Amino acid sequence: MFPPPRHTLATLLLLAGAVWCSLPSQSSTVAPRLPLDYGVSGPNVNVSTILSAVGTPYCMRRCLGRLALAAKKLLAFNETTARFQDLCSAFAATKECLDARIHCGPRNVYDAVTSGMEYTCVTKRASFDRVEPCLREHVDPILQTCDSSCLLRANLSAFSTAPTVQMAAQIGGNLLMVAKHLPPFCSAVQCALPCILERANAVCPLSGWLILDSVLQPFDKAAALFAKAPPLMQQLVREQLSDRCAYLFDVTSLADMRKGKF
């Protein structure tokens, strides 16, 4: 029996981690690190390792350094609204860089994973700009409090520094090697989302819903794809990610989250 198409399986597994990434590479050579990932103030999350571990093609990787840097700075949960502006600028620059590399290969996974950025920085930019002054004052302590309770950054750090994940990065990417390390992070996400939603809405009305909707954009795409996947593929994904991540692939669960039902 033939295995599921690699790009489809990649989409399902990568979206589960909600990390910035791209299509798996066919290369078995050592994956070079992305630039600009050293000496950055923030949590011990190695963005370049994550991107390399999931097999980001080298030609695409060369465009992602600024985006990786902006993502890592955002995770500091300090001056978050300013770091958000930096992330949007980096997202626009990355899109321009990738658009210029027309022969780099399909971007369907990258576009799906970064759909939350597209939603926040482009589609709903006016809505986020309206709540930005309020969030500028309140969002840092909200994120820090929820992170303290849910260990979101600690789990992401553990994922990016796991020896198996680092080995996957060194060999050019291996999704099955990294997938088994995702469930603790999925649990942290499930804990953090209602925490952030409730606290953000309490001080900046509607802002929590905007944040939630932005975060869930990639998972919507994953759930739609998962629902159409053959039973064999669904079983493979469930086995690799366990029940702790299964809710991220369920259309009904995602709809409930948007109603505040976690």
TrEMBL record:
<feature type="domain" description="Chondroitin proteoglycan 4">
    <location>
        <begin position="58"/>
        <end position="151"/>
    </location>
</feature>
<protein>
    <recommendedName>
        <fullName>Chondroitin proteoglycan 4 domain-containing protein</fullName>
    </recommendedName>
</protein>
<dbReference type="InterPro" id="IPR029153">
    <property type="entry name" value="CPG4"/>
</dbReference>
<dbReference type="Pfam" id="PF15481">
    <property type="entry name" value="CPG4"/>
</dbReference>
<dbReference type="InterPro" id="IPR053123">
    <property type="entry name" value="CPG4-like"/>
</dbReference>
<feature type="signal peptide">
    <location>
        <begin position="1"/>
        <end position="21"/>
    </location>
</feature>
<keyword id="KW-0732">Signal</keyword>
